Amino acid sequence: MKELNTNNFQVVKPVKLAQIPTRLEIVTSKKENKKSLKKIGSKLSKLQDIMYAHNRYGVLICLQGMDTAGKDSLIREVFSKFNPRGCVVHSYKTPTSKELQHDYLWRHYVALPEKGKYSIFNRTHYENVLVTRVNPQYLLYENIPGIEKTDDVTDKFWEMRFRQIKNFEKHIAMNGIIVFKFFLHLSKEEQRLRLLRRLEMEKKNWKFSAGDLTERTRWEEYQQCYEEAINMTSVPHAPWYVIPADDKLTARLLVAKIIFERMSKYTDIVEPQPDDKLMENIENYKEKLRKKDI
Question: Under a CB-based contact definition with an 8 Å cutoff, are residues 48 and 82 in contact?
């Protein structure tokens, strides 16, 4: 994986998803990639511990992709060595009745990482310019002033949502949250194979939903919406990375590598130093504990 330049996957100018490969041809073996992922995972875990002690930054990992893109397994494998106290996963599904009583960003605001911690969004606030854009009837459940029917949802409405999302990300970045946004770029053929596997393997039957096939018929609509969302909202403080996802192991390794390389640039994240009083008395404290005086 050393030959891969992670900068090549960051969106710094408008992209066409149809022109970006969903599978990478790499020279390293599966065994080597598993070893590399394990090694990077350990390094990320150590960085997490230091950030937790430093207590000034939080990290938000956003994962988006079509059904079967590998979000769940990526979370399990990339973050397996993290201390659970410093990493929380939030999986976003259809908004609850309580969530619908608030604006669409509310449930994401309350799930943002505390200082020193990671939050992982499995599906994200971008669902509100993806699923609702392909299915605008869902917006009617939000009781938005001026939106009485789907015909009221104009291009200006989506432009407004993109501005709101960009402002949301700018605000949290300015307050110490480091934002990563990953689009797991899956091919339609690979999705077909993965859905079929869910049906053919009894232990995976529970993962299949008839709705998956319905959404699959709207593949091109989703790709167009993803492309526009990525191009409209990839900025230096909250960049998008398009990750080829037909091979799950390669996708996991690439995500881990991107996170590690970017986090390593924050040289101000260091373990806190003991105060002068502690250092002046440290030998005395050790002596008391050795003699069991306390």
Answer: yes
